Amino acid sequence: MIVMKNVYKKYPNGVVASNGIHVEIEKGEFVYVVGPSGAGKSTFIKMMYREEVPSSGLIYFNNTELTKMHRKDVPYLRRQIGVVFQDFKLLPKLTVYENIAYALEVIEESPSVIRQKVTEVLKLVGLTRKTRMFPNELSGGEQQRVSIARSIVNQPKLVIADEPTGNLDPETSWEIMKIFERINAQGTTIIMATHNKDIVDNQPHRVIQIEGGLITRDEHEGEYSNEI
Amino acid sequence: MKSRTVRRHIRESFKSLSRNGWMTFASVSAVTVTLLLIGVFIVIMMNLNQLADNIENDVEIKVVAEPGASEVEVQELLKEVKETPGVAEVKYSSRKQELERMIQSFGDELALYKQDNPLGDALYVKADDPKNTASIANEISTYTYTFDVEYGEGKVEKLFNVLKIGRNVGLGLILALLFTAMFLISNTIRLTIVARRTEIDIMKLVGATDSFVRIPFMLEGVWLGIFGAVLPMTLMTIFYSKLYDFWEGRLQNQLFHLLDPNPFLLQLNFLLLFVAVFIGVWGSFMSVRKFLKS
Ligand SMILES: Nc1ncnc2c1ncn2[C@@H]1O[C@H](COP(=O)(O)OP(=O)(O)OP(=O)(O)O)[C@@H](O)[C@H]1O
Ligand SMILES: [Mg+2]
């Protein structure tokens, strides 16, 4: 599903966030991306839906090469990928409901289907009573759940989540993990950057560890950390 | 684009207007103020223009025939004048009529001249183009039976120059005003959109195409323009009608008539609305374009 070949990313300020990454992620996989803060996890992820473009190297998404992708094709790539952003990225002037509906409006879904799917996903993340609130009226954890709901509402083949449990209490974190496990079981590929040792160790999946812009560990059913 | 998406964009643009409260107010106010200025200016300019036309059409050449000339000779002069290139209209006034007119304006003392009328017959000449007045007058003055030619020489020329300058200056001012307006308004709109830059980025991250982002913003521009035009259009209509009634009622037989509100007001309002919508859409388009590119 995703292939990176010798990907190198240097930000305009000179920081090298990816320093020659090779990786292959198959359809249906569940992948944790771990590593210390500033290691380049978010950068690694952002290049997959083309929020960032690598300085050199190649990235394939289902045989489409992303680095040479035309500007006008980018929206169609992003519609196939659900993204939970580390900073949520909710539209401040739209309500919870409207924020989630937006992802379906861009693909010109019919209002009745939108209503049904949004209601369903709101139930899933436990926000049915806050649908008319604006993002600034929500707690961090609630905003995160809206972001998660938006990422899965149009049933994408790939969900990328950047610390989706970062602001959640352990209980809600497990609820969210259950959702991810469920859609993964239905065949959705999940790539999830996380600092949550508890989850990684108890819910074993493939672990990709990034340090200093390089993949330093890639284990089939790894633990959060290889040191004791 | 599906029709439900069109409806969605329209709904979205109105929602955004109401949720952006004071930003909307600022933009609408900017349009309103500018349009009022433009409107007042156009009223003044168009009426000055009309005045200029009135005056131009009023310029006559008075040709006085030799007082001693016979009737046949005067007829010859009349024929000559009529055939002069550029002459549109010639009115004949006999020496008797001329004297009557003088008596009317200067009093009965002149009545004694009735015995021995010293005046010549007169011809009142209009040029097809008022600018040719001077050259036509010159031409006529060379004819054999011409005694005198009057047309308020220098004065007419000066008036024309003043009018010409006035029109050009007015036109220049309107253009300058229009540009200032566009700048002012596009800046206001840009400000409101700069504030939404992050929103545009987010929309794109969740898969919106450029046009999906752009269309609601441009529709917002249309509404801003229309809302901004309402007050100026209403005020101009009310005040111009009032002014017209007052002017034409009190000052009848005046040389200068104001333009008839029908169709002038219709044209003015149409123009104001067009300018407003154009500025609104153009402002939105330019600002969004900047952010979509990045
Ligand atoms: N837009 C940017 N411009 C310049 N430098 C950046 C930018 N984004 C990230 N960086 C730098 O790139 C490096 C990697 O950042 P990245 O966000 O990928 O780390 P991360 O592993 O996601 O960290 P965290 O766990 O804290 O989220 C950091 O040193 C960061 O300062
Ligand atoms: Mg990160």
UniProtKB/TrEMBL annotation, chain A:
InterPro entries with a match to the protein in the record: AAA+_ATPase, ABC_transporter-like_ATP-bd, ABC_transporter-like_CS, ABC_transpr_LolD-like, Cell_div_FtsE, P-loop_NTPase
Keyword list, A-Z: ATP-binding, Cell cycle, Cell division, Cell membrane, Membrane, Nucleotide-binding
Gene Ontology molecular function, alphabetical: ATP binding
Cellular compartment(s): Cell membrane
SUPFAM superfamilies: P-loop containing nucleoside triphosphate hydrolases (SSF52540)
Domain ABC transporter: 2-228
Biological process annotations from GO: cell division
Membrane topology qualifier: Peripheral membrane protein
Signal peptide: none
Transmembrane segments: none
Pfam entry (one): ABC_tran
Role description: Part of the ABC transporter FtsEX involved in cellular division.
Subunit and interaction comment: Homodimer. Forms a membrane-associated complex with FtsX.
Family in the record: Belongs to the ABC transporter superfamily.
Protein name: Cell division ATP-binding protein FtsE
Source organism (scientific name): Sporosarcina ureae
Phylogenetic placement of the source organism: Bacteria, Bacillati, Bacillota, Bacilli, Bacillales
From TrEMBL, chain B:
Main location: membrane
Domain ABC3 transporter permease C-terminal intervals: 173-290
GO biological-process terms attached to the record: cell division
Alphabetized InterPro entries for the sequence: ABC3_permease_C, FtsX, FtsX_ECD, FtsX_firmicutes-type
Membrane topology note: Multi-pass membrane protein
Transmembrane segments: 21-44, 169-189, 222-244, 264-285
Record's keyword terms, sorted: Cell cycle, Cell division, Cell membrane, Membrane, Transmembrane, Transmembrane helix
Residues covered by the FtsX extracellular domain: 59-144
Entry's localization field: Cell membrane
Pfam families: FtsX, FtsX_ECD
Keyword Disulfide bond: no
Top-rank lineage group of the source organism: Bacteria
Family: Belongs to the ABC-4 integral membrane protein family. FtsX subfamily.
Biological role: Part of the ABC transporter FtsEX involved in asymmetric cellular division facilitating the initiation of sporulation.
Protein name: Cell division protein FtsX
